[in-house]
Amino acid sequence: MNLHALRLFTKVAELKSVSKAAQALMISQPAVTIQIRNLEKDLELTLLESKGRGITLTQNGEFLFKQAQRLFDLELDIENKLEQLKNTGNEELQIASTHVPSHFLLPKWLANYKQAFPNSYIHIKTANSQQVIEELLHYKADLAFIVKEDGHHPDINYQFLINLDYWFIVPYGHPMADQTVTLAELMQQPFVSREDGSSTKEFLNALCKIHKIPPPRVGLQLDGINESIHAIAAGYGTMLAPSIAASSFIQRQQVAKVFIKDIDIQRPIYLCTRKNEQNISAAFHSFIDIINDSINRI
User: Mean of the pLDDT values across residues 231-254?
Assistant: First the structure.
């Protein structure tokens, strides 16, 4: 496959325009068109179709575009890691994580790792589960941590680490505080919800669907666990929260649990890596060993 032609195709697919791609790459529009036609001929596939004054991707084109993005992201990742090795002699470990592992589990694991390897370099990005998987797939992260029951990506390995209890919480002094109610009754309360792409939001909607009740009315939407629990502590709404995050607020009598008849919730935390990954760094293996050792001590 002609990688130069593939790079041109990727830019066209990204901008949805041959002319805009040619302008961005500072080459002529006919040159771009010829390269893409040659690529289609070599692959024996149609990648682009005309749509009005622009273009659209065929199904084959969509597939190639996604794979090409990952290929060129890998190229950039290699360049960045070589630059790190040249400048520091160490490869930086890039981690992507959803909020719960990032705030409540990774700090201890990373502290243990840094004590063992003080010269190591680590960067963490915290995001929702959908964004975290994208970071991993596109080589923006070397490994990832998510809380998610299903919808696993076929190109990702999921190593189960631990189950966490999840609780429904309300402000301290709320009429439902420390009471046992039905899920349908609780869903009538205004909820503090996470953003789209959050696995907790997806889980709550799925739970309602299983029990054949309407999803909760969202009264407030926030992007983080801590922000959401603080809103509850301030006196508004209810939410589904990990026990590891909510327990200190309960101890301080800022929030309270609500018990749901016949429902106890545990959610799994996974360590995620790309499938068929070769030449994984020593830093990666060392960090995994420290995590597994910490889990085994629980």
Answer: 95
- Fold for the domain defined by 76-154+271-297: D-Maltodextrin-Binding Protein; domain 2 (3.40.190)
CATH says 3-67 is which class?
mainly alpha
CA-only gyration radius of the chain, Å: 24
Q: HSE (CB half, 13 Å, CA atoms) of 159?
A: 14
Report in angstroms the alpha-carbon separations of 219 from 191, 195, 202, 226, 285: 5, 12, 17, 17, 44
Q: How far apart are CA 121 and CA 167, in angstroms?
A: 35
Phi, psi dihedral angles at 133 (to 5 degrees): -65, -40
**More confident: 50 or 144:** 144
Please give the pLDDT value at position 84.
Answer: 65
Of the pLDDT bands very low, low, confident and very high (cuts 50, 70, 90), residue 90 is low
User: What's the Cα-to-Cα distance from 260 to each of 122, 136, 276, rounded to whole Å?
Assistant: 41, 36, 42
Handedness of CA 170, 173, 176, 180 (dihedral sign): positive
Q: State the pLDDT at residue 109.
A: 93
* Model pTM score: 0.73
Options 3.40.190.290, 3.40.1180.10, 3.90.650.10, 3.40.50.1370; CATH for 162-267 is 3.40.190.290
In sequence order, the β-bridge partners of residue 157 are 273
